[in-house]
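User: Show me a protein chain along with its predicted structure.
Assistant: Here is one chain, sequence first, then structure tokens.
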Amino acid sequence: MNLIKYKPNKLDFFDWDNLLDRFFDEPLFSTNLPAVDLKEEKDRYLMEVELPGLTEKDIELKIEGNLLTLSSKKEEKRDEKKNGYIIKERRHSSFTRSFTLPDSIDKEKIEASFKNGLLTVTFPKKETSKAKLIDVKKN
């Protein structure tokens, strides 16, 4: 049989005894930033962003000058009545990431697509930034 000491001022819904342990085990600042993969190909750059649980309507992709900003804001609400209980839950999530684009990108031809939680953004390179072979002539 275990005896539990009565502590009238202790808040049972929060584990105060393990607070210090959790402080050092868990990250101080958790981030909701999505994973991003960038790849350079011969005539374009390709960016893939994992955005599970989002739809294309939840995503905003914006260019200002040489700055590409990817952001999302999503609110979920759930109301449920069951066995005399009323449950109301709300969840908010948002993030913003910005990337500086190189001058070699043709901003007018950037394309983005979204499928199965993966955002794919294609950044075509300008014609002037592509490698060009120069013929060497004999004098």
